[in-house]
Automatic annotation (TrEMBL):
This is Trafficking protein particle complex subunit BET3. It comes from the Eukaryota. Residues 110-122 have a biased composition (Polar residues). It comes from Pisolithus microcarpus 441. Residues 101-122 are annotated as: Disordered. Keywords: Endoplasmic reticulum, ER-Golgi transport, Golgi apparatus, Transport. The keyword Cytoplasm does not apply. Belongs to the TRAPP small subunits family. BET3 subfamily.
C-alpha cells in the first residue's frame, strides 16, 4: 500500500500531465518579471511592492483553490503536517510543475487537549524550492537587494489565500531566496488558527 506522501506525489504528477491549458514557462516568467518591474516603478518602495505582490497572490489563491479541489479530489487533511505534503506534492506540482521539499519542525512536547484542537505544536512547515519558475532569467539589482525585495512574494499570497478558503488562517513568509544570494529559496507556512465555518445569515 502506497504511503500518503507517495499517493500525493502521484496525484500531483497526474494533474500536471492532464492539465491542457499550460502556459509556456518562459512567457510566464517574463510576464511576471514585467509585472514586478511595473510595481517597482509605480510604488518606488520595495516594502510596498512586497505587500502588493502578496495581495495579488492572495486574490489568485482564493480562486485557484476551487480548481484545485475540483480536479484533485483531495479530502480534508488530518493535521497541518499533512497540509504541507498536499501543498508541496499536489499543489505546486499541478500548477507550476515543481515539487518543493517539505520539512516539519521536530515535536517539542506532548500537546495539551487545547493545543491539539488548534494544532499549535509543530504548526508550521518549510518549503524549499530547488527551482523557481518565477525567477528564471532574473538578477536583482543591488538597490532591490538593499531595499528588501522578495521577488516571488506572490507565492506567499497564493498560499495564504488558498488555505484561508479551506478554513486555515496562515502566515507565509520567505526565509531565504537564491536571488538575494542565499544558498536556498525557502518559504515558511505557519498556522495561526483554524477558522470557523461561516453560517449564512438566517441559517443559524
Amino acid at each position: 500500500m502506497a504511503t500518503p506522501s507517495k499517493q500525493y506525489k502521484a496525484i500531483g504528477e497526474d494533474l500536471w500531465k492532464s492539465r491542457t491549458e499550460k502556459v509556456n514557462a518562459e512567457l510566464f516568467a517574463l510576464t511576471y518579471g514585467a509585472l514586478v518591474v511595473q510595481l517597482i516603478q509605480d510604488y518606488e518602495d520595495y516594502g510596498e511592492v512586497n505587500k502588493q505582490l502578496e495581495k495579488m497572490g492572495y486574490n489568485i489563491g482564493t480562486r485557484l483553490i476551487e480548481d484545485f479541489l475540483a480536479r484533485s479530489s483531495v479530502g480534508r487533511c488530518s493535521d497541518f503536517r499533512e497540509v504541507g505534503e498536499v501543498v508541496a506534492k499536489v499543489g505546486f506540482k499541478s500548477f507550476l510543475n515543481i515539487t518543493p521539499t517539505v520539512t516539519h519542525p521536530p515535536p517539542t512536547s506532548r500537546p495539551t487537549s487545547v493545543q491539539r484542537q488548534t494544532s499549535v505544536p509543530n504548526s508550521s512547515f518549510t518549503l524549499t524550492l530547488d527551482e523557481n519558475p518565477l525567477a528564471e532569467f532574473v538578477e536583482l539589482p543591488e538597490e532591490a537587494l538593499e531595499g528588501g525585495l522578495w521577488f516571488s512574494n506572490v507565492l506567499c499570497g497564493v498560499l495564504r489565500g488558498a488555505l484561508e478558503m479551506v478554513q486555515m488562517q496562515v502566515q507565509v513568509e520567505f526565509l531565504s531566496d537564491v536571488l538575494r544570494g542565499d544558498e536556498t529559496t525557502e518559504l515558511r507556512v505557519t498556522l495561526l488558527k483554524y477558522l470557523e465555518e461561516e453560517v449564512p445569515m438566517g441559517d443559524e
